[in-house]
Amino acid sequence: MAALPIALSWMLGALLPGAVWLGWSLHCSRRLHRAEQAERQRTAQLLADAEGRHAELQARLEARVAARTEALQASEARMRTIFSTSFQYQGLLALDGSLLDANETSLRGIGATLDEVVGRPYWDSPWFARTPGMPETIRLAVQAAAQGHSRRQELRLLLPAGWRQFDFAVRPVHDRDGAVVAVVPEAIDITERHLAEERLRQAQKMEAVGQLTGGVAHDFNNLLQVISANLHLVSRLTHDDVKVMQRLDSASAAVRRGAKLASQLLAFGRRQALAPRVVDVGRFIGGIEDLLRRSIGEGVEVELIVSGGLWHTFIDPTQVENALLNLAINARDAMDGNGRLTIEVGNAFLDDDYVRGQVDVKPGQYVMLAVSDTGCGMTPQVLSQVFQPFFSTKPAGAGTGLGLSMVYGFVRQSGGHVKIYSEPGQGTTVKVYLPRARAAEGEVDATPDPGAAAAADDAGGGAETVLVVEDDAAVRGATVEMLQELGYRVLKASDADQALVVIDDAVAHHAAIDLLFTDVVMPGRLKSPELADKARQRLPGIAVLFTSGYAQNAIVHGGRLDPGVELLSKPYSARALASKVRAVLDHGVREPQ
């Protein structure tokens, strides 16, 4: 048995240095004789090939390196794809702030190629160069990141596409030892989110102002109505006393200012009752050109430019006139009464790119009304506040600060858009965009008829019977007396239920009631629109005239009077009352009795 270890030793020893033993087979047969020479037979086979084995190992190593290289390249390609196609603005900076790389989104934002910006200081690149003061802000942020400190802030940047809002950050990149080796800037365009937040804030502000003004407008205008009516009635008794009449005129003027203030607040809050019609704005403005010239004085030169092929728009003509007068008077004040006022009317199309940067504006076709002056212009700070109610740059007592607020509210309530362009010393242009309306020429409300307006002002009274329904006793009493003064036979009721009793009594006695003159907002289970319906059922020929300091949603929906509804807003003068009552009696839509 001693020969087996010897044979193994011999075979193992055959593995010379540098050789690789791949395998062996052994067959050993032994014949042993006690007195004779031992006979040994051994066979061994060695498979060793040093050079061949080295080649195989090299091939395996090369395959492994190739596989790992391919995996690394695939990983790098994936990372490059993520980097290049990211919606974020991303880049890579050296520690000195020079740009090493930038993705496609950030390059698109400035309309540049990578070669045009690589190697430049990041803060001097087109991303920041157009925004005043921004390069220094970015330089400090990059330096902080190079020292291991991340920075994050919201930025408003002027890019080739316009002003954009960004959530911007810079952060350091560390190696395995914790040393900062690079800086990564990244930004998310939050312009749309910012605009959405602005729309929400604006809507909340509008709602708050609307609730405030709507809540007090009814009672406030009722008080003004009582004062106005009684001032008129007193003036009829003391018209020979000059001093008393002067006092009464002064008080009446204060009532009108109060009424205008309430109306402007309702306009800003988009709570006024509009009576829109299809209007040719060019012809309409031509009809009030003389009024504009008288309002702004001889020191201001007025130029009116109306484009050909002008579209029509669906608006309240009275509110257009008020808005244009407000803009013209503001322009006159900005020019200190001397300068040039240009009023331009034309067609305009607001596309998706434009409205994307605006607040709550729809793309489409509009009629544009532009009012430009050669005045002092406005700073960006003033420009950002011009639509705020009660904001004014005029001296105390020279204005309410509600003129532009009223314009803004009316245009927005009409589905339009207002944009102001102004620079200090360069004048101001206010552009009002009113939605296009498609209508046949016969449906268009043309130029105002001064003769018709004068006739309305001179409207007298009549002998018809008017039922006055008003819950405020002071308003009711003054209105009844003014109508009686005009010659009408007047019935009265304090609410809708009492009014139905009066109507039923008239029906029972075959008596006529020609006009139902009712307040919109009254206490009780029966509302004024329902009262009107029941009155028409009982008296098919009756005309209906509503009155209110704030119509709310009873006869106004979507900011517009319901079709066929006639409204006299409080506070109204005796002349306005006479004119409106006469017009409704003469031209109101009534079924024949």
Uncertain spans, ≥5 residues at pLDDT below 50?
1-49, 447-457, 589-593
**What is the overall silhouette?**
elongated
Counting helices, strands and paired strands, the structural category is: alpha+beta
How much β-strand is present in the residues?
Answer: 15-25%
Number of domains: 4
CATH level-two architecture of the largest domain? 2-Layer Sandwich
Overall pLDDT score: 79
Report a brief summary of the structure:
The protein is of the alpha+beta class. It has helices at residues 3-13, 50-85, 104-110, 114-117, 134-146, 191-237, 242-268, 281-287, 289-296, 317-334, 352-356, 380-383, 403-413, 450-457, 473-485, 496-508, 528-538, 574-587, and strands at 26-31, 39-44, 89-93, 99-102, 151-159, 162-174, 180-189, 277-279, 300-306, 312-315, 339-350, 364-373, 417-422, 428-437, 465-469, 489-493, 515-519, 543-548, 556-557, 560-561, 567-569.
Explain how this protein is built.
The chain is an alpha+beta fold and 593 residues long. It folds into 4 domains: 86-189, PAS domain (Beta-Lactamase), CATH 3.30.450; 200-268, Orthogonal Bundle (Helix Hairpins), CATH 1.10.287.130; 277-448, Histidine kinase-like ATPase, C-terminal domain (Heat Shock Protein 90), CATH 3.30.565.10; 457-587, 3-Layer(aba) Sandwich (Rossmann fold). 43% of the residues lie in helices and 22% in strands. Strands 8, 9, 10, 11, 12, 13 and 14 form a 7-stranded mixed sheet that branches. Strands 4-3-7-6-5 form a 5-stranded antiparallel sheet, with helices on both faces. Strands 16-15-17-18-21 form a 5-stranded parallel sheet. Helix 6 runs antiparallel to helix 7 (242-268), helix 10 (317-334) packs antiparallel against helix 13 (403-413) and helix 16 runs parallel beside helix 17. The longest helix is centred in the middle third of the chain and has 47 residues, at 191-237. It is elongated and about 130 Å long. The model is unreliable at 1-49, 447-457 and 589-593 (pLDDT under 50).
